């Protein structure tokens, strides 16, 4: 029976890859939230600037309301700048997590290929042993007329 000696390592690397995938999903969600927040802030600032223009275009002008609106626009601009910095950080984090996922995938695939290769070698070796046992048994039957050669496939596999 085939047993891959590095199976615990493969399981660990699959587990680590799954964690990196979950982390990537979280970072993508964070990027979406930051982008949505930036969009809302930009739209709110554009509307506020538009109201400020409309106020100055009319005949009557409320200085206190205009000052208040200008202050609000400046606060929105500061939030937009902070959001853009946050967006850059999240995009950097996204690149790092994507690179980690590529590495984790590569590690898992390498071990899976090794497992497949060792499995194929094991099957090939088992087939050769079975063929040799069958040949030995056939030769024994033909020579002596008996089937008891004392050699079995299991004893050859186990090196006995």
UniProtKB/TrEMBL annotation:
Top-rank taxon, per record: Bacteria
Compartments in which it is found: Cell membrane
Pfam families reported for this sequence: FliJ
Membrane topology annotation: Peripheral membrane protein
Segments forming a coiled coil: 80-121
InterPro entries cross-referenced by the UniProt entry: Flag_assembly_chemotaxis_eff, Flagell_FliJ
GO-annotated biological processes: bacterial-type flagellum organization; bacterial-type flagellum-dependent cell motility; chemotaxis; protein transport
Keyword terms, alphabetized: Bacterial flagellum biogenesis, Bacterial flagellum protein export, Cell membrane, Cell projection, Chemotaxis, Cilium, Coiled coil, Flagellum, Membrane, Protein transport, Transport
UniProt family annotation: Belongs to the FliJ family.
Name listed for the protein in its UniProt record: Flagellar FliJ protein
């Amino acid at each position: 029976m085939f047993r891959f000696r590095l199976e615990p390592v493969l399981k660990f690397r699959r587990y680590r890859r799954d964690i990196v995938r979950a982390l990537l999903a979280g970072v993508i969600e964070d990027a979406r939230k930051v982008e949505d927040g930036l969009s809302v802030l930009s739209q709110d600032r554009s509307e506020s600037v538009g109201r400020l223009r409309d106020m100055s275009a009319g005949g009557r002008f409320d200085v206190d309301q205009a000052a208040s609106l200008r202050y609000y626009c400046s606060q929105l601009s500061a939030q937009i700048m902070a959001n853009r910095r946050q967006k850059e950080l999240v995009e950097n984090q996204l690149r790092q997590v994507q690179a980690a996922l590529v590495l984790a995938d590569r590690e898992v695939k390498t071990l899976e290929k090794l497992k497949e290769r060792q499995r194929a070698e094991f099957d090939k070796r088992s087939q050769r042993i079975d063929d040799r046992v069958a040949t030995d048994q056939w030769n024994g039957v033909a020579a002596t007329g008996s089937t008891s050669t004392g050699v079995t496939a299991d004893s050859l596999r186990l090196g006995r």
